[in-house]
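Quick one: structure tokens for this chain, please?
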Amino acid sequence: MQLSGKIAFIGGGAMAEAILKRLVLGGLVQAAQVAVAEPVLARRDYLQAEYGVGVEAENSQAASGASILILAVKPQVLDKVLPGLAGVIQPETLVISIMAGVRISTIRRGLGHERIVRSMPNTPAQVGKGMTVWTATSTVNDDDKSQAQMILEAMGDAFFVEDEHAIDLTTGLSGSGPGFVFLLIEGLIDAGVHIGFSRAQAERMVLQTVEGSVALMRESGLHPADLRNRVTSPGGTTAAGTLVLEQRAIRATLIEAVAAATARSQALGDLSEASE
């Protein structure tokens, strides 16, 4: 199945490219259907050369006549972007936001528009392994939702939630989650170096260990505690290491980290609305 009509990207950064790449190379759209608004000339030249899409310096030029408009700019510049789009997009245009912390109400007021999808992808979307949670206004119909799901699934896994509040929760867990995972990976690599491996050897071991552990959990369908118990022999090495992690309250620390990221996401959303 292919998407029909013109698809416009407002912003041509890494996350926009993640979607663009999967849509074009995956055959979901023709390059001629796509227009990207990007202020940096070198970036426009790159996107055009790499994917064959149309590029524009002006947001209004890219947005004109679009069936689907993807907002992929940084939230800090949104107040400068929305006014220029308000008189350009049509009532039937489906607007999809991938901006962290920006609520539907902010987009609705800024654009004077109702058909809006708010989504929260994470950075592994850049390699087609992303996790995206999304919601929509009541005016987004079933056909719109099918198109939104297709676009967001191009980056990896995606699912719909009814309550927009869940998007703030998503930001704290899967949105910030890669940062927490990378910190754990970095710590394990440092541990490998500490016990005597070269950094290259330690990195190779840790990355395969993490990837393999995820694959095993997916394939087995077992609870992580069950899998952990299977590798933890009485009085063994894993038991000794796990004891240290539990003594340092790593589980509670992770819960607190996700809660802090969630609270920050909610605060940023409140700040965005208050600044209007």
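The first strand starts at residue 7 and ends at 10.
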